[in-house]
Design brief:
Blueprint lengths: L6 H21 L2 H9 L4 H25 L2 H4 L2 H4 L2 E3 L2 E3 L11 E5 L5 E5 H4 L5
Antiparallel strand pairs: 1-2, 3-4
Helix pairs in contact: 1-2
Length: 124
């Protein structure tokens, strides 16, 4: 039986090649990206989104002071989307839940209140 390879050797080679393919796939990012897209969004990432949304809200409030209430609906607070569990969510959606409300003085001098429900075009 000279020149023949045993079944154990063939099985071992198949396992080694499979492991090598998986390792190369992860290190080049192909399989890592596949599995990361399946994973749920971590609480740390949501905390980062909340922090970003608070900053966006503050910027939107500042734009109201400079440009008027109409600038709020086109602000990044209203338009920015974050990917959570493969779905796009806004700052005001339940998963992130950063509300943005405040008040400003109208041209007539009266105090006007605003919030994301009225001014992000939600119509709630």
């Amino acid at each position: 039986m000279k020149g023949q390879i045993s079944t154990n050797t063939i099985v071992g080679l198949i396992i080694a090649l499979s492991a090598l393919i998986i390792i190369v796939g992860f290190t080049t990012g192909g399989l890592g990206n596949l599995f990361s897209s399946v994973a749920e969004t971590s609480p740390d990432k949501i905390d980062t989104y909340k922090s970003n949304c608070n900053n966006l809200c503050n910027s939107a409030k500042a734009s109201i002071s400079n440009s008027g209430i109409d600038s709020f609906s086109s602000s990044s607070y209203c338009s920015k989307k974050f990917l959570i569990d493969n779905e796009e969510k806004n700052c005001y959606d339940a998963e992130i839940n950063v509300k943005c409300s405040g008040s400003y003085r109208s041209d007539a001098g009266s105090l006007v209140y605003f919030n994301e429900q009225d001014n992000c075009g939600l119509g709630l």
